[in-house]
Design goal:
InterPro entries: Acyl_CoA_acyltransferase, FemAB-like. The chain has 13 helices and 12 strands. By secondary structure, it is α+β, with helices and mostly antiparallel strands. The protein is globular and about 60 Å long.
Length: 391
Amino acid sequence: MPVSSYDSVDQLPAVEWDALVSGGTIYSSSGFAGVRTEELPLGATARYLIARDDQGAPVAGAEAYAFMRPPHLLYTPTDLLAGLISDEHRVHLAATPLAIGAGWSEFRGQLPGRDGVTAPERSAAVRALTAAALDFAGTAGASVLGYYYLPRAEALEVAEAHADDGAVLLYHDVETVLPVGLWQNLDDYLAWLPSGRRPRARRERRDFDRSGRTIREVSLPEVVKEIAPLNSALMRRHGHEYGEERAAAVYDRQGRYLGDRSTLLLAEDAEHPVGFALRYRHGDTLYARVAGFDYSVPNVADYFNLVFYHPVASGVGRTVRAIHLGLGTFQAKLARGAQPHPLYSVFVGVDRPLAADEKKVRERNRAGAEAFGAEYGRFVVGGLNTDDWLL
């Protein structure tokens, strides 16, 4: 299947790209591609790939990037492959550029596709895209190509396409999704929660209401200056050097590219912002991107009211299927109804096979899934069987 290749987001046909919605998220949109172009570190390069059918219509797409060093600590292949490949090979990988396929936005990879294509068409498109990504990685001088944070189905597609290249498929992390489409209102939601969790949810909602704080829905470009200090405070609270100027630059950039997709909940106390939750709408899903708070005022479960209770109470479930909550803070999210979905990463040697120990890969995947279940399974409404996560 032929593949069209574009070296910059300016060349990318945005209408064609954004029509590839099957399996895509807001992070695979042309808007986020634009954001990422401005955020690429010095020396990094990008490639946008579209596999086309015999009539020239797009079937599926992939983003590929090359970096002199990993763009984030969580994208370091030598850490993830420790104990699976030889130490000598890991040293070699660390000394060469890193190529990433399937995007690197917000810890979520994807190969978006056109709705309605047949399974053979999809398979042919993925094979063509992964071959093009591998060529790109070789040209960039990379020794490893990684496809990070893919959902299970796409990870298996990529691993199968790279079977002859010795692909290593790893369970990597878990994203959480609030199935808000199940509930028409807050009463429906509370009835769905286990009885032992309802009092806390009611108390957190009541305390917020009694505080006198109100929630207003706005678009991101309207409030960049207002949310910058709140986001900066949150980041610094978690140990990051993240000043207000930097926060303002980040959200000004996202507002320029994604303002029409944004829906931001702003919590106010006597007309002063005390917290916010930024979401992006994509298809039938809201993507909860980031939050921020004023820590000089009392906390009345502001986060849970902005991210969980207010959206449910306002009836967003009548038009939205789910709220995507991303990685981390699992106990808090799962206890309030979020559902876990495993994510996987696939690694391929570029200049030579990774030669991973297959037994150790299986053991690593099982141990990782079982560890998550042991620590967090009891918080999942409806229960959790991580055997379904094994590969």
